Amino acid sequence: GDILYQRYEIQSLAGQGTFGTVLNAYDRKRDETVAIKVVRCVRRYLEAAYVEIEILDNLRKADKEGKSLCVRMRKSFVCHHRRRRHVCLVFEPLGRSLYDFLKRNYFQGFPLKQVQHFGHQILTGVQFCHSLNLIHTDLKLENVLLVDDTYEKRERDGVVVRTPENTDIRLIDFGGATYDDHHHAKMVNTRQYRAPEVILGLGWSFPADLWSVGCMMAELLTGELLFGTHEDGEHLALMERIIGQRFPSRMTLRAIEKCKEDSKNQNSRKRSRRRGRSGGLPRADQLFSSETGRLLWPEISTSDDSTKHVATSQCLPELIGDTLLTDLLERLLTFDPAKRITALEALKHPFFESLYFQRGRSPR
């Protein structure tokens, strides 16, 4: 029942994260329900919040018709609680994330028709961001929310699963989003959705988002992470195994060369406490052969379990089944970012040609 900003009546706790808290609230001025993201009074979170506010303002101004499928921020303000300053962002009310929905379904994947609708919407949101020179940098199922998470229970393959009644979604969390002409952090993305060029320290741009979308669409269908790993070597080996190709040698040899250059530069600056690559990037010269550029797998495997995990992983066609979706994913998961499909091109892919869903209703 507390009141924020003399306007928002707190109703319940919607969720908590490292950044802070999300509250369900009633806007007494506009007579509507809203979600309020209350950011913790920690410098790095507050700085990210101010960046996110600026980006969300720009998105809102560019999206006058509300067709971007990016979350809409209604307002932002600063409040003080127990002598601490908190930045608050007010959003349209939304349902749970696609990840949470999968989790409540015991990680049973969505039907192909729903994957089609989700994928089309995610790409629409990504294309809108890219048209504004903005890279999201943290696309994952946790950052895609259902507009309405009401569901019905249906039997599928002998198992009772929850089926969303409405498959409309919104992209959220622009705290790490980066304009292409602004400073790029060396490390972006959540591990399992991270593009190879990011891991190899080759620099990144719009294509890194498309790699993430490929990982997300596969996960929506299967219910499981496409690249389930926490190690760089295993991650790269899984990429080669699942996609069925080796990394282009020109890409890996360039990564090795860049790695050596970075090491020289750091040594010349006498950074004795921080050898090698900064920002948590792996050393490419330890992952790939300096002569051929080939990934040194399984030589760099850290355990027999890791080697077995890679060896027993299914390749993309076996994993996905559907020919058109497999083709789209292969284009989204192209190793060379210069050859990877763009969001606009992906939206024109034959997988989306028969959009047999009705807007606002869950495809059956």
Describe the protein's architecture and organization.
One of its GO terms (cellular component) is nucleus. Keywords: ATP-binding, Kinase, Nucleotide-binding, Serine/threonine-protein kinase, Transferase. Belongs to the protein kinase superfamily. CMGC Ser/Thr protein kinase family. Lammer subfamily. Residues 8-352 form the Protein kinase domain. One of its GO terms (molecular function) is ATP binding. The protein is α+β, with helices and mostly antiparallel strands. The protein folds into two domains: 3-91, Phosphorylase Kinase, domain 1 (2-Layer Sandwich); 98-352, Orthogonal Bundle (Transferase(Phosphotransferase), domain 1). Helix content is 36%, strand content 18%. The protein is built from twelve helices and twelve strands. The chain has helices at 43-62, 98-104, 112-131, 196-199, 206-222, 232-243, 249-268, 284-287, 304-311, 316-320, 323-332, 343-347; strands spanning 3-4, 8-17, 20-27, 32-39, 73-81, 84-91, 134-135, 144-146, 151-156, 159-164, 169-171, 178-179. Strands 1-2-3-4-6-5 form a six-stranded antiparallel β-sheet, with helices on one face. The chain has a two-stranded antiparallel ribbon with strand order 7-12. β3 (20-27) and β4 form a beta hairpin. α3 (112-131) packs antiparallel against α5 (206-222). The radius of gyration is 22 Å and the shape is globular. It starts with a strand and ends in a 17-residue tail after the last helix.
